[in-house]
Design goal:
Order of helices and strands: HHH
Shape: flat
Number of strands: 0
Radius of gyration: 15 Å
Strand content: under 5%
Number of domains: 1
Helix content: over 70%
Length: 94
């Protein structure tokens, strides 16, 4: 089961990275560089593997759920900051 989840995580990350790649072909509103794809790939894989680690190491179901939701919330906050700058930090995108 461990390897199956890892395959699902990697496949999901690749699929999610294909969405902006395809969108770039059809619209000029999506403009990602190679650096954007690398950073997002690292974030997607990192978040997925953190959730995998939580599911493997934490025994209680409630704690598993809360920790995975917390990991996803941190991912979404970082993503929002990098893409539109919700906190007006100097690392925000254009």
């Amino acid at each position: 089961m461990k390897n199956k989840r890892r395959i699902i995580i990697v496949t999901s990350a690749i699929f999610l990275l294909l969405l902006p790649l395809v969108a770039m072909e059809f619209t000029s509103d999506v403009r990602w560089s190679v650096f954007d794809f690398v950073i997002m790939g690292i974030f997607l894989l990192g978040t997925g593997l953190i959730c995998e680690l939580i599911l493997r190491k934490v025994q209680k179901t409630r704690q598993r759920g809360l920790l995975c939701v917390a990991a996803l919330a941190v991912f979404l906050l970082i993503w929002a900051e990098l893409s539109i700058g919700i906190f007006i930090a100097p690392v925000a995108g254009d």
